[in-house]
Amino acid sequence: MTSIGGFRWGETLARVVVIALLAFAIFGPLANLVLWAFAERWYFPHKFPQEIGFTYWARVFAPRGSALASLWTSVGIACLTVLVTLAVAIPAGYALARLKLPARTLILLVFLLPQAVPNLPVYVNIARVFYELRLNGTVTGVVLVHAAHGLVLAVWIASAAFAAVDGQLEEAARNLGAGALRCFAAVTRPLAAAGLIASAIFVFLESLDEFTGTYFVGVPDVTTMPLLMFNASMGGNYQIASITALLLLVPSIAFMLLVERFLKADVLAMIGR
Q: Confidence band (pLDDT; 50, 70, 90) for 35?
Protein backbone atom coordinates (compact mmCIF):
# COMPACT_ATOMS: atom_id res chain seq x y z
CA MET A 1 0.00 0.00 0.00
CA THR A 2 2.87 2.35 0.82
CA SER A 3 4.48 1.81 -2.58
CA ILE A 4 1.15 2.39 -4.38
CA GLY A 5 0.52 5.56 -2.38
CA GLY A 6 4.03 6.78 -3.12
CA PHE A 7 3.57 6.10 -6.84
CA ARG A 8 0.32 8.06 -6.94
CA TRP A 9 1.92 10.92 -5.03
CA GLY A 10 4.83 10.98 -7.47
CA GLU A 11 2.46 10.88 -10.45
CA THR A 12 0.45 13.79 -9.03
CA LEU A 13 3.64 15.77 -8.40
CA ALA A 14 4.82 15.13 -11.96
CA ARG A 15 1.50 16.39 -13.35
CA VAL A 16 1.67 19.51 -11.21
CA VAL A 17 5.22 20.22 -12.39
CA VAL A 18 4.28 19.74 -16.06
CA ILE A 19 1.21 21.98 -15.73
CA ALA A 20 3.28 24.62 -13.92
CA LEU A 21 5.93 24.57 -16.66
CA LEU A 22 3.28 24.86 -19.38
CA ALA A 23 1.60 27.74 -17.53
CA PHE A 24 4.96 29.51 -17.18
CA ALA A 25 5.75 28.98 -20.88
CA ILE A 26 2.36 30.39 -21.92
CA PHE A 27 1.69 33.13 -19.39
CA GLY A 28 5.28 34.12 -18.57
CA PRO A 29 5.90 35.96 -21.87
CA LEU A 30 2.39 37.41 -21.71
CA ALA A 31 3.02 38.77 -18.21
CA ASN A 32 6.31 40.28 -19.38
CA LEU A 33 4.44 41.87 -22.29
CA VAL A 34 1.92 43.46 -19.93
CA LEU A 35 4.68 44.77 -17.65
CA TRP A 36 6.50 46.40 -20.57
CA ALA A 37 3.24 47.92 -21.83
CA PHE A 38 2.85 49.92 -18.61
CA ALA A 39 6.53 50.48 -17.74
CA GLU A 40 7.64 54.11 -17.65
CA ARG A 41 11.18 53.22 -16.55
CA TRP A 42 12.68 49.76 -16.34
CA TYR A 43 16.42 49.23 -16.19
CA PHE A 44 18.66 46.28 -15.43
CA PRO A 45 19.15 44.76 -12.83
CA HIS A 46 15.66 45.61 -11.52
CA LYS A 47 13.22 42.72 -11.84
CA PHE A 48 10.18 45.00 -12.08
CA PRO A 49 9.57 48.47 -13.54
CA GLN A 50 10.62 51.43 -11.41
CA GLU A 51 7.68 53.47 -12.68
CA ILE A 52 4.40 52.48 -14.33
CA GLY A 53 1.86 54.61 -16.14
CA PHE A 54 -0.08 55.24 -19.34
CA THR A 55 2.31 57.63 -21.11
CA TYR A 56 3.08 55.24 -23.94
CA TRP A 57 -0.57 54.24 -24.28
CA ALA A 58 -1.37 57.93 -24.79
CA ARG A 59 1.25 58.06 -27.54
CA VAL A 60 -0.23 55.02 -29.27
CA PHE A 61 -3.78 56.39 -29.23
CA ALA A 62 -2.83 59.99 -30.01
CA PRO A 63 -5.03 61.34 -32.85
CA ARG A 64 -1.98 62.08 -34.99
CA GLY A 65 0.04 59.10 -33.84
CA SER A 66 1.36 56.53 -36.31
CA ALA A 67 0.10 53.61 -34.19
CA LEU A 68 -3.57 54.46 -34.62
CA ALA A 69 -3.11 54.98 -38.36
CA SER A 70 -1.31 51.63 -38.59
CA LEU A 71 -4.14 49.96 -36.71
CA TRP A 72 -6.76 51.23 -39.16
CA THR A 73 -4.51 50.30 -42.07
CA SER A 74 -4.18 46.75 -40.72
CA VAL A 75 -7.94 46.41 -40.19
CA GLY A 76 -8.71 47.80 -43.64
CA ILE A 77 -6.23 45.49 -45.36
CA ALA A 78 -7.58 42.50 -43.39
CA CYS A 79 -11.17 43.29 -44.43
CA LEU A 80 -10.19 43.65 -48.09
CA THR A 81 -8.21 40.41 -47.85
CA VAL A 82 -11.27 38.59 -46.53
CA LEU A 83 -13.40 39.85 -49.44
CA VAL A 84 -10.82 38.89 -52.07
CA THR A 85 -10.12 35.50 -50.49
CA LEU A 86 -13.77 34.51 -50.08
CA ALA A 87 -14.51 35.61 -53.65
CA VAL A 88 -12.15 32.83 -54.73
CA ALA A 89 -12.60 30.34 -51.88
CA ILE A 90 -16.42 30.09 -52.03
CA PRO A 91 -16.72 29.00 -55.69
CA ALA A 92 -13.57 26.90 -55.41
CA GLY A 93 -14.77 25.22 -52.22
CA TYR A 94 -18.22 24.57 -53.69
CA ALA A 95 -16.71 23.05 -56.83
CA LEU A 96 -14.41 20.80 -54.81
CA ALA A 97 -17.28 19.70 -52.56
CA ARG A 98 -20.01 19.14 -55.14
CA LEU A 99 -18.45 18.49 -58.54
CA LYS A 100 -16.88 15.15 -59.39
CA LEU A 101 -13.49 16.56 -60.25
CA PRO A 102 -10.62 14.31 -61.26
CA ALA A 103 -7.63 14.49 -58.92
CA ARG A 104 -9.67 16.37 -56.31
CA THR A 105 -7.25 15.42 -53.54
CA LEU A 106 -4.34 16.65 -55.66
CA ILE A 107 -6.07 20.01 -56.14
CA LEU A 108 -6.55 20.36 -52.39
CA LEU A 109 -2.88 19.54 -51.85
CA VAL A 110 -1.90 22.23 -54.37
CA PHE A 111 -3.57 24.80 -52.12
CA LEU A 112 -1.31 23.58 -49.30
CA LEU A 113 1.91 24.11 -51.29
CA PRO A 114 2.41 27.71 -50.07
CA GLN A 115 2.62 26.32 -46.52
CA ALA A 116 5.20 23.72 -47.54
CA VAL A 117 7.56 26.28 -49.10
CA PRO A 118 9.53 28.74 -46.90
CA ASN A 119 7.87 32.13 -47.04
CA LEU A 120 11.02 34.24 -47.35
CA PRO A 121 12.17 33.21 -50.87
CA VAL A 122 8.56 33.27 -52.08
CA TYR A 123 8.00 36.84 -50.89
CA VAL A 124 11.36 37.98 -52.29
CA ASN A 125 10.35 36.79 -55.76
CA ILE A 126 6.84 38.21 -55.39
CA ALA A 127 8.38 41.57 -54.48
CA ARG A 128 10.43 41.50 -57.69
CA VAL A 129 7.35 40.72 -59.80
CA PHE A 130 5.26 43.36 -58.04
CA TYR A 131 8.01 45.91 -58.59
CA GLU A 132 7.68 45.37 -62.34
CA LEU A 133 3.88 45.68 -62.03
CA ARG A 134 4.24 48.80 -59.84
CA LEU A 135 2.38 47.14 -56.98
CA ASN A 136 5.18 47.52 -54.44
CA GLY A 137 4.29 49.94 -51.68
CA THR A 138 0.57 49.77 -52.43
CA VAL A 139 -2.39 48.47 -50.44
CA THR A 140 -3.43 46.45 -53.50
CA GLY A 141 -0.13 44.58 -53.54
CA VAL A 142 -0.31 43.84 -49.80
CA VAL A 143 -3.91 42.61 -50.09
CA LEU A 144 -2.98 40.28 -52.96
CA VAL A 145 -0.10 38.80 -50.95
CA HIS A 146 -2.28 38.31 -47.88
CA ALA A 147 -5.09 36.80 -49.98
CA ALA A 148 -2.73 34.31 -51.63
CA HIS A 149 -1.58 33.22 -48.18
CA GLY A 150 -5.11 33.06 -46.76
CA LEU A 151 -6.47 30.95 -49.62
CA VAL A 152 -4.81 27.88 -48.13
CA LEU A 153 -7.12 27.62 -45.14
CA ALA A 154 -10.07 29.39 -46.78
CA VAL A 155 -10.48 26.85 -49.59
CA TRP A 156 -10.08 23.87 -47.28
CA ILE A 157 -12.61 25.16 -44.74
CA ALA A 158 -15.07 26.33 -47.43
CA SER A 159 -14.87 22.94 -49.13
CA ALA A 160 -15.53 21.19 -45.82
CA ALA A 161 -18.45 23.53 -45.05
CA PHE A 162 -20.15 22.80 -48.37
CA ALA A 163 -19.42 19.07 -48.10
CA ALA A 164 -21.16 19.01 -44.71
CA VAL A 165 -24.42 20.25 -46.30
CA ASP A 166 -26.81 17.42 -47.12
CA GLY A 167 -27.03 17.15 -50.90
CA GLN A 168 -30.60 15.85 -50.69
CA LEU A 169 -31.75 19.26 -49.50
CA GLU A 170 -30.36 20.82 -52.66
CA GLU A 171 -32.05 18.16 -54.79
CA ALA A 172 -35.35 18.82 -53.03
CA ALA A 173 -35.06 22.55 -53.73
CA ARG A 174 -34.36 21.90 -57.41
CA ASN A 175 -37.29 19.50 -57.65
CA LEU A 176 -39.47 22.36 -56.39
CA GLY A 177 -38.32 24.51 -59.30
CA ALA A 178 -35.43 26.45 -57.79
CA GLY A 179 -32.57 27.22 -60.16
CA ALA A 180 -28.92 26.55 -59.36
CA LEU A 181 -28.21 30.09 -58.11
CA ARG A 182 -31.41 30.30 -56.07
CA CYS A 183 -30.74 26.86 -54.59
CA PHE A 184 -27.25 27.98 -53.58
CA ALA A 185 -28.47 31.28 -52.11
CA ALA A 186 -31.51 29.87 -50.27
CA VAL A 187 -30.28 26.44 -49.17
CA THR A 188 -26.55 25.77 -49.50
CA ARG A 189 -25.09 29.11 -48.42
CA PRO A 190 -27.15 29.50 -45.21
CA LEU A 191 -26.34 25.93 -44.13
CA ALA A 192 -22.64 26.44 -44.85
CA ALA A 193 -22.58 29.92 -43.32
CA ALA A 194 -20.97 28.81 -40.05
CA GLY A 195 -17.98 27.31 -41.84
CA LEU A 196 -17.68 30.30 -44.18
CA ILE A 197 -17.69 32.69 -41.21
CA ALA A 198 -14.98 30.63 -39.55
CA SER A 199 -13.00 30.75 -42.79
CA ALA A 200 -13.37 34.54 -42.94
CA ILE A 201 -12.19 34.85 -39.34
CA PHE A 202 -9.09 32.75 -39.99
CA VAL A 203 -8.21 34.86 -43.03
CA PHE A 204 -8.81 38.09 -41.11
CA LEU A 205 -6.50 37.01 -38.28
CA GLU A 206 -3.78 35.82 -40.66
CA SER A 207 -3.88 39.12 -42.52
CA LEU A 208 -3.92 41.13 -39.30
CA ASP A 209 -0.78 39.37 -38.01
CA GLU A 210 1.06 38.98 -41.33
CA PHE A 211 4.53 40.53 -41.27
CA THR A 212 6.88 39.02 -43.85
CA GLY A 213 4.73 39.58 -46.94
CA THR A 214 3.86 43.10 -45.85
CA TYR A 215 7.52 43.86 -45.19
CA PHE A 216 8.67 42.85 -48.68
CA VAL A 217 5.72 44.25 -50.62
CA GLY A 218 4.36 47.15 -48.57
CA VAL A 219 7.44 48.92 -47.16
CA PRO A 220 7.92 51.87 -46.97
CA ASP A 221 4.53 53.26 -47.98
CA VAL A 222 2.24 50.78 -46.18
CA THR A 223 2.74 50.42 -42.42
CA THR A 224 0.67 47.87 -40.53
CA MET A 225 0.64 46.99 -36.84
CA PRO A 226 3.14 44.10 -37.17
CA LEU A 227 5.53 46.40 -39.05
CA LEU A 228 5.12 49.07 -36.37
CA MET A 229 5.82 46.49 -33.67
CA PHE A 230 8.96 45.36 -35.52
CA ASN A 231 10.24 48.90 -35.99
CA ALA A 232 9.56 49.77 -32.34
CA SER A 233 11.32 46.68 -31.01
CA MET A 234 14.32 47.15 -33.32
CA GLY A 235 14.55 50.74 -32.11
CA GLY A 236 14.55 49.65 -28.46
CA ASN A 237 11.09 51.07 -27.77
CA TYR A 238 9.77 47.98 -26.02
CA GLN A 239 6.79 49.81 -24.54
CA ILE A 240 5.31 50.67 -27.94
CA ALA A 241 6.15 47.20 -29.23
CA SER A 242 4.42 45.55 -26.26
CA ILE A 243 1.31 47.73 -26.56
CA THR A 244 1.12 46.92 -30.27
CA ALA A 245 1.44 43.20 -29.53
CA LEU A 246 -1.38 43.40 -26.97
CA LEU A 247 -3.59 45.24 -29.45
CA LEU A 248 -3.01 42.41 -31.94
CA LEU A 249 -3.58 39.76 -29.27
CA VAL A 250 -7.02 40.94 -28.13
CA PRO A 251 -8.85 40.51 -31.48
CA SER A 252 -7.03 37.22 -32.05
CA ILE A 253 -8.40 35.77 -28.80
CA ALA A 254 -11.88 37.18 -29.42
CA PHE A 255 -12.08 35.84 -32.95
CA MET A 256 -10.73 32.43 -31.97
CA LEU A 257 -13.59 32.15 -29.47
CA LEU A 258 -15.96 32.91 -32.34
CA VAL A 259 -14.28 30.26 -34.49
CA GLU A 260 -14.83 27.69 -31.75
CA ARG A 261 -18.52 28.53 -31.89
CA PHE A 262 -18.98 28.54 -35.65
CA LEU A 263 -16.59 25.75 -36.74
CA LYS A 264 -18.66 22.74 -35.72
CA ALA A 265 -17.65 19.09 -35.55
CA ASP A 266 -19.41 18.10 -38.78
CA VAL A 267 -17.44 20.72 -40.71
CA LEU A 268 -14.14 19.72 -39.08
CA ALA A 269 -14.81 16.10 -39.99
CA MET A 270 -15.04 17.01 -43.69
CA ILE A 271 -11.79 18.99 -43.93
CA GLY A 272 -9.49 17.35 -46.45
CA ARG A 273 -12.10 14.83 -47.61
A: confident
Q: What average pLDDT does the segment 14-29 reach?
A: 81
The CATH number of domain 65-270 is 1.10.3720.10: yes
pLDDT at 266: 47
Domain ranges, ordered by start, for the chain: 2-53, 65-270
Between the alpha carbon of residue 224 and those of residues 23, 123, 231, the distances in Å are: 31, 17, 11
Closest to 204 in 3D by CA, of 161, 269, 147: 147
Q: What are the pLDDT digits (tens) for 104-124?
A: 677 767 767 766 677 778 888
CB 262 within 8 A of CB 198: yes
Q: What is the 3-state secondary structure (H, E, C) of the chain?
A: CHHHHHHHHHHHHHHHHHHHHHHHHHHHHHHHHHHHHHEEECCCCCCCCCEECCHHHHHHCCCCCHHHHHHHHHHHHHHHHHHHHHHHHHHHHHHHHHCCCCCHHHHHHHHHHHHHCCHHHHHHHHHHHHHHCCCCCCHHHHHHHHHHHHHHHHHHHHHHHHHCCCHHHHHHHHHCCCCHHHHHHHHHHHHHHHHHHHHHHHHHHHHHHCCHHHHHHHCCCCCCHHHHHHHHHHCCCHHHHHHHHHHHHHHHHHHHHHHHHHCCHHHHHHCCC
The pTM assigned to this predicted structure is: 0.79
